């Protein structure tokens, strides 16, 4: 029983344990079922996520395919665009070429038009310049025959067409009729001997002092065509060769070949004669400064003290002076051995060989252009520019006595009685005769305006010549009493030239 009770108790315990184990198993089953349900849920969620992922992958693949297709279309579109841009660029380049070609053609057409107009203007210009020269020649002929009215009209027309079309108004057939008809040349016989030199009073263009080789010093003042002359000094034993008026004191200095210097004070009454004992055959004076003056003799130089009017020093020369001139403000001496000497002081001079062959009888220079002119004993003139180029001018028949350079114009006087004008910057320099006389011209000088030059000749004449073209034209213009008639116009000038009035009347009224 005991044993049975123990077994029964053990069985009860076993049943209790089994019941507990069953409960635990049931609980484990419930937990397992819950876990299984949860696993199933997780499986369903995983399946859903896998399906969603697959869908996303499909969507990505579709997007990729769409992107590839879009890229392909974009590439194709870009290629088409590039082709179209290339075509457009070629079309633009072609259009630019066409435009450039059109502009070039237009430019060529414009150039051809300009050249045609230039050629026409040039032809017209040359035609009118030729007409001006022709009218000047006819004017001279009419003047010689005494037909003054027509001569004045044609001379004015000659000047008008020449100046209007840029021709050379100093061309002989244009200039000479102007000079002749304006009566620009006026002469007076004032000296007994040859007029060797003349000098204007300071600041006065119509008052000058002239000296002669007959011992005369005269003061002349011009009033129109009248010359009032006053003798300041006269002694035939003197042979005056040069005269200078001192601008500071107003005194007149005249040097005689006899070896004397005559000084006339500003009051024109006080006269002093200085013997130049050591100066043989004085021939030139040169004002050095306000204090001193240089006397140039054939074999010596003498310095004159202007304050006391005495000889302050002399210098014997180792050569014989033939002529004296001026260069760069200093005395320039030419000797008989083909050399020239630039005098810097009484004891200082620079010697060099004369750059031309022959005997030099006149010299001048232009400070502005650097051109030098050498006048020769045979009448020829040598021009030398600042680079040393030489040019020989032929136009005088005998010794050149005086020359002046005024810019591009060279004036020359000669013992042949002529004064020539040369335009030095022309390719071919030819003479134009301003004066054509029969007396040796010893000297000439310009007034301050450069419009009038005065000259003295071997017969003792003083001559004033106005060479200002505007002055000549104004004089002739005042002489015009009428216009050319239509018949005269057609005969002298021509029907192809439009008629115009030369006295201020409009052309149509003149024709009527």
Helix count from the secondary structure assignment? 6
Question: Pairing-aware structural class of the strands and helices?
Answer: alpha+beta
Main sheet overview: 4 strands, antiparallel
Shape: elongated
How would you name the oligomeric state of the polypeptide chains in this document? Answer: single chain
Strand content: 25-35%
From the N-terminal CA to the C-terminal CA, the straight-line distance is 189 Å
DSSP helix fraction: 25-40%
Low-confidence runs of at least 5 consecutive residues: 505-512
Quick check: average pLDDT? Answer: 88
Strand order of the largest sheet: 1-28-27-26
Rounded to the nearest angstrom, the radius of gyration is 57 Å
Q: Report the strand count.
A: 28
What is shown here, in short?
38% of the residues lie in helices and 33% in strands.
Question: What report would you give on this structure?
Answer:
With 512 residues, the chain is an alpha+beta fold. The protein is 38% helix and 33% strand. A 4-stranded antiparallel beta sheet has the order 1-28-27-26. The chain has a 4-stranded antiparallel beta sheet with strand order 2-3-4-5, with no helix packed on it. Strands 6-7-8-9 form a 4-stranded antiparallel beta sheet, with no helix packed on it. Helix 2 (148-164) packs across helix 3 (172-181) and helix 2 crosses helix 4. The protein is elongated. The protein starts with a helix and ends with a helix.
């Amino acid at each position: 029983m005991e044993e049975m009770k123990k077994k029964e108790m053990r069985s009860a315990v076993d049943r209790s344990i089994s019941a507990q184990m069953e409960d635990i198993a049931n609980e484990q089953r419930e937990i397992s079922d819950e876990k299984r349900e949860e696993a199933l849920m997780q499986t369903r969620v995983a399946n859903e996520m896998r399906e969603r992922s697959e869908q996303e992958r499909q969507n990505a693949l579709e997007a990729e395919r769409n992107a590839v297709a879009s890229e392909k279309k974009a590439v194709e579109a870009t290629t088409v665009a590039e082709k179209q841009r290339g075509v457009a660029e070629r079309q633009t380049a072609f259009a630019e070429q066409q435009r450039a070609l059109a502009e070039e053609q237009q430019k060529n057409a414009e150039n051809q038009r300009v050249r045609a107009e230039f050629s026409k203007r040039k032809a017209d210009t040359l035609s009118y310049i030729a007409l001006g020269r022709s009218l000047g020649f006819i004017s001279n002929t009419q003047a010689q025959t005494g037909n003054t009215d027509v001569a004045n009209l044609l001379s004015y027309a000659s000047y008008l067409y020449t100046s209007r079309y840029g021709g050379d108004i100093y061309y002989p057939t244009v200039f000479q009729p102007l000079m002749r008809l304006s009566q620009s040349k006026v002469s007076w016989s004032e000296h007994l001997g040859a007029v060797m030199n003349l000098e204007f009073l300071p600041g006065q263009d119509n008052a000058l002092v002239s000296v002669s080789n007959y011992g005369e010093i005269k003061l002349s003042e011009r009033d129109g065509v009248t010359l009032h002359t006053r003798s300041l000094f006269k002694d035939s034993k003197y042979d005056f060769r040069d005269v200078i008026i001192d601008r500071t004191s107003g005194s007149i200095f005249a040097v005689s070949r006899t070896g004397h210097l005559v000084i006339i004070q500003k009051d024109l009454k006080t006269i002093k004669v200085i013997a130049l004992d050591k100066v043989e055959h004085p021939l030139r004076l040169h004002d050095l400064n306000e204090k001193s003056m240089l006397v140039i003799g054939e074999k010596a130089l003498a310095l004159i003290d202007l304050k006391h009017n005495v000889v302050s020093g002399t210098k014997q020369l180792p050569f014989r002076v033939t002529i004296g001139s001026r260069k760069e403000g200093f005395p320039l001496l030419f000797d008989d051995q083909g050399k020239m000497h630039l005098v810097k002081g009484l004891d200082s001079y620079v010697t060099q060989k004369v750059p031309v062959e022959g005997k030099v009888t006149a010299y001048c220079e232009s400070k502005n252009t650097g051109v030098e002119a050498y006048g020769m004993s045979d009448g020829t003139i040598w021009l030398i520019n600042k680079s040393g180029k030489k040019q020989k001018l032929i136009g005088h028949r005998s010794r050149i006595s005086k020359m002046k350079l005024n810019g591009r114009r060279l004036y020359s006087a000669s013992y042949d009685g002529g004064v020539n004008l040369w335009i030095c910057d022309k390719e071919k320099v030819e003479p134009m005769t301003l004066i054509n006389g029969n007396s040796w011209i010893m000297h000439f000088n310009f007034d301050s305006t450069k419009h009038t030059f005065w000259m003295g000749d071997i017969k003792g004449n003083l001559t004033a010549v106005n060479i200002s073209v505007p002055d000549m034209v104004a004089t002739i213009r005042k002489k015009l009493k009428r216009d050319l008639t239509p018949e005269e116009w057609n005969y002298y000038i021509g029907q192809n030239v439009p008629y115009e009035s030369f006295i201020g009347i409009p052309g149509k009224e003149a024709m009527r």
